[in-house]
Predict the 3D structure of the following.
Amino acid sequence: MAPTTNPTLLKWLDEMTALMTPDKVVWIDGSEEQLEALRAEACATGEMEKLNEELYPGCYLHRTKANDVARVEDRTIICSRKEEDAGPTNHWMDPTKAYEMLYDIARGRYAGRTMYIIPYSMGPVGSEFSKAGIELTDSIYVVLNMAIMTRVGFSVLEALGDSNDWVRGLHAKCDIDQEKRWIAHFPEDNTIISVNSGYGGNVLLGKKCFALRIASYQGKNEGWMAEHMLILGLTKPGEETKYVAAAFPSACGKTNLAMLIPPEEFEKKGYKVETIGDDIAWIRVGEDGRLYAINPENGFFGVAPGTNSHSNYNALASTKKGAIFTNVVHNLDNNTVWWEKCDDPVPTNAIDWLGRPWNAEIRDKNVAEAEATGDAAKIKMAKCGAHPNSRFTAPAENCPCISPAFATGEGVPLSAIIFGGRRAKTAPLVYQSRDWNNGVFVGSIMASETTAAAAGAVGVVRRDPMAMLPFCGYHMADYWTHWIEMGKKIGDKAPKIFNVNWFRTDDNGDFIWPGYGENLRVLDWIIDRCEGKVDADETAIGFVPKAEDINLNGLDFSLDQLKGILAIDKELWAAEADGIEEYYKKFGDRLPEELKNQLATLKANLA
Ligand code: OXD
Ligand code: MN
């Protein structure tokens, strides 16, 4: 018998069961016994491998198919009724056609298989911020990852009651056929359909699909915000904790900033950073008129390569129990995991992410063979034992610096919002916007330059507004209007908005600022600005620190170097303003007047 009487849920389940024709139906109740039985089953079928229980208690390894290792933006679609509502930055498909196509792909694909019904909550069950979803899947790997990344089980159904405010999610592995892979969103129907993938970002439907694409649309209609932001708390000695949310494009070190360890000088004085979230923030106006944020997730889905005790001690520690590793190297000598730039030497007896025998000798042979082809992409991949986008799924509660506020679901008041990108020359290390609307402008023009490591031309500016380019579930210009509307609601209670750039380079292309834990020095200034404790220089783009106000104690970094990365090159900014003007044209008459005015002001300031 179904553990719910929710009429909309039961009706949808009837429809989906008829469509998918599973042999068996299993409700995920949230109990440890059920999850443990599923882990055992996944190990018996080879879907997962259990790792060394002493070194990695409760941890497992999984490999996806080689064609299924990342999110697929070109096959991610927003199926709003009107094409113009998806906007120029999304791929759109007519919903009637999309349902027909997707149901044709999925029809009967649970035959001979089990349909798992996962009731899950984004945000702690019962929190005012939280929302429920139901994901149907034929993958135990998905069930077990969802049980780390979200709150799953019957308590979600109880909290939902008979409400229709829940998100429908259908996932079917089908044949992992990349030609028939679709990650489809129907924002007006609260529905997600994902077919032919088994990779996390495409199939853990609570994360990017619900908590960003669907939720951003819900937020617009319901007066709140779903953002691609980390949330952290910074406590200065003797002061109360201040909270900031920060948006960066993928691969700009969001998880590292969220879990930052202060430099020794600061730690000794009593500075502390606590993590609330590393990827997503749901933000609402509180009773006192300020913005409050929660992390709707319950775990971290982090990139493994590059994670080590120096780059992110806390993330690494989070992976030591109850974690699932995907597409990393399996070290057979001690039945543990390995990836590029972890703390351990290359294993001598291992299996690579493709399931092939692997060690340093084999790798060198692979690299030599790839070099003979002269193909840069092949050479890059031959150097990897772990896939560059290999992942860990780790419970947030494992994180040594997790904030007590993470679990309460009450939301933390935001003092600052930070935007950032990768800019070699243009953006200074940090600047503050003049006010909320200017901050919205700063977020809307967020960009990164392509690096030599990525395929394609070097130095091309890619705009990624608010780091939401792949995640905004509706027209980007309407999303900016929503930001402006939120600003009107909160007035002078608004968090201050900043922009940071850790990636200024010297003439050799090397990064100037040391980054990682040293970024605390910038956060320190940001909080001082929020508190009105420190002055700044007003420039054409906003308020830039006086170099002396950024504490460099204990760091081998000169004031002149700092002045260099705080400098604003007017010529570069004039070119930037032209680039913004060109970019804004895409959004036609939906571009809010306020942003047009902001661009005009920037141009006037630069003249
Ligand atoms: C992620 C991403 O996986 O932003 O979090 O790509
Ligand atoms: Mn992300």
Remarks:
- The chain is about 35% helix and 20% strand.
- The longest helix spans residues 206-222.
- The chain has a mean pLDDT of 96.
